[in-house]
Amino acid sequence: MLRDRFDTRDENTNTDRARSATISISTPVSGDRGQTTQDFAVGIGIFILAVAFVFSFLPSIVTPYDSAVGGAETAQADRISDKVLEELIVDGGPNEIDPGLIGTGSLEDNNLADTFGLRTADDGDIRIDRLNVRIQELDNDDNEPAEAGWEFGDTYDDQPAASSARIVTVDGGEEDAYRLVVRVW
Known about the structure:
Blueprint: H1 2-6, H2 37-62, H3 71-88, E1 96-97, H4 112-116, E2 120-121, E3 126-127, E4 131-137, E5 151-153, E6 162-170, E7 178-184
Parallel strand pairs: 1-6
Antiparallel strand pairs: 2-3, 4-5, 4-7, 6-7
């Protein structure tokens, strides 16, 4: 009767092969369960470590380059643009500037370190921070000043730099609005 209950194979099949015996090994601790609490804890621990590794390591692989410009340079560019705007502003209206004041007074090229607090070495003979200020046409992206003489500071050659821009009007200018761009590197 026991044999009839477990052997449900069709007796009419002609198979010459002998049925292989399956041996199941289990420890008394695990009983009939397939996974213990310790197995689960180790598995979840490894999974969490793998996910943490991916989230901490993957961004450094995806990011191709580290920016050469930090928060300090960006804050410095913003501060300098405020100072330049303050020096160039006229009484005609908000953010209306006179580009004729470029290169005069505190905006002379030899006074830039003192005026804007740029880092220097050798008692001020060598400037560490570089600065470029120019007034550009608002709709022009060629990085050229709108007119000759509307730029001062160091020559900017598309190197990594922190920049700050202000929209200004020019006293007697041909356009309605211009962009005052300050770059620090």
